[in-house]
Amino acid sequence: MEPLKLMGLAPIVHGSIARGDVHSGSDIDVFIPSIVPSYMIEVGLERAGLRISHKLVVQATPQSTPKAYIVLDAEEKRIVSFPLAKLSKKEYEFYYFGGALDYDGIVSGKRVPGVNKKLVLIEPLPDGHRESPVIGREAEVAKIVGVSIDTVLERVRVLTRRDEHGRTGVFVKYELEPWDSIEDAVRRIARENPIFRRALIAKGSPLV
Length: 208
Description:
It is a single chain. By secondary structure, the chain is of the alpha+beta class. It has one domain (about 1-115, about 170-200). It has nine helices and ten strands. Strand 4 (about 65-70) and strand 5 form a beta hairpin. One of its GO terms (molecular function) is nucleotidyltransferase activity. This is DNA polymerase subunit beta. InterPro entries: NT_sf (IPR043519), Nucleotidl_trans (IPR009185), Polymerase_NTP_transf_dom (IPR002934).
């Protein structure tokens, strides 16, 4: 995160690293919660000696804000992502639902509560963490993690459906080589996919 902060960006890390229930297989997911030129991220990573494996442009559903992913390993365990248009409130709160910290929080060793993909609330304790169910306690969980009840209810619906029916595909997933321009790829996809283009326009993307 430090190389990105030195580029004037405001990265957050979300998931188990922020909650503190990290393990050897944990992903490292860094998110820039604003629209930024991709070169700023790439320059920061390059200065830190980090090699880009590949890049992705993803739109989860036709209604979702498209995002870009800069991937640092073939297994896609280390990723820096950012939105390609303005996030909705629920999309922004998604990261805090799972637990999120900024650079200063990480450096200071802070941990925050959040919900994992199994819909278990993780609350940090001085000597570990406490786990408790989310379903049936949605309003309480919303207060604990600091997001709206609507965001909690939506995540419960999505993750419950995933458990019942398995993970489904995404609406758009476009893979780029490390040297490809994300912005050029976004414009190319927008020319070919009118739904993708409409989402960018509706959400105020500067790329269309």
